């Protein structure tokens, strides 16, 4: 008996099959945020499942766990489950992509998962199995530590300097990243970008931080400190010790070294785990109803 | 000789004709934000001008000053001036709606104008005539003291309480204002609202503050304090004394009594002027090239 995990995210989808902690196959498909594209998400899920079942026998599959971006807000689990059941007689469960990351990062045990990519959210799992959520309120009034947050801090820093008659070292970074020639044009351009493209400017801020731009470093550091504060809050509310497992997922939290070093400093006792790749492996820690 | 001022704003447009501080006529037309609708803005300007010239002789008009929302970012002044000149041989100038408010609020003298409606901006006019700008960076990283800012603070307050396992008194206000039945649904709904509709929820926060909701009062107070800080900064950078004229325009700054009382307390020496109605009267303080 093997299990299939599907990590259905905003930009791409990964399905993996596991048997006794060993990955049997991996397949990729297109994007799968159900809030943005319900039909496309379902289609892509059926495609990756067909690819996996092309290599492994359906009768040997003990369960399929699908973590879908946007499902906590938009719903649509029932339709996905029904679609899978029309083709395959296998137990299926749908959770949010954050819940799948929690399973993958904490291996079913207590601790905290902090996900910081375009947006951010922090989840704690108590020893009892109950969960506590901190953040994850979206770009308008949350997403601390996310790429969106880093870029927002960068523009705020540039604007504050100009309000004071000064020019911040972050200004040339943002002017170049927006392919403009003046800070006012950079601001105007930023308002033509959607949430994802705006957050994408974080790459330029991170690169500048890497090469010694102190203003860019301050933006990344402040974002990481904000996320660390939410992790502390989640640990406290879940009644977990500071020496807990804290798993980090998402492009910012898992890949940016300066960001990680700030988390390391702010959470000196935690067992930090940087998750790479998909969280499909979380299926191994999920209990399918028998 | 009389002068015509046109205040071309996001929701409506007002044209007024003045002669020696006396208003001769007033006409209204549709919206006129040139960034949102250049063709409609031009059409509405031509309509209100035709209405004024239906009552007053063109030959007696000494100049037309048009303050247009969005023109600082989007441009398009030349097209408007050309369109007016094709029909009328009268001097025409186009400025931003904020510049028109500054003329109307400061009567051509030194001081500060703070505009807080859906968005916000602070402008100071030095004794030399030079200007200093503070804020006005838009909803993503600015607009302190605006309706958008008040609503953002309200949602942030609700989210922070929930992150702490608490329920803020602002929560029922936001749940009711979004016509939902749960804070998660209120958050989801807020992300379906565009900038203007989101800012429009400030009315509900202001009403709750009025009837004693302490959390709502804290949101309005914090927004007003943020705007007061920008006004202080503008006075300082312009080299103006604390006892300067500070004109207040926009639905929040000019109409909300709690907001105004906070500004009053933060700026005890200033001569505060609350501007009501359109700023078309600013034309009286504009110097048309002879």
UniProtKB/TrEMBL annotation, chains A, B:
Domain called ATPase BadF/BadG/BcrA/BcrD type: residue spans: 4-256
Gene3D superfamilies noted in UniProt: 3.30.420.40
Superkingdom: Bacteria
PANTHER family documented for this protein: N-ACETYL-D-GLUCOSAMINE KINASE
Name of this protein: ATPase BadF/BadG/BcrA/BcrD type domain-containing protein
Species per Swiss-Prot/TrEMBL record: Schleiferilactobacillus shenzhenensis LY-73
Organism classification: Bacteria, Bacillati, Bacillota, Bacilli, Lactobacillales
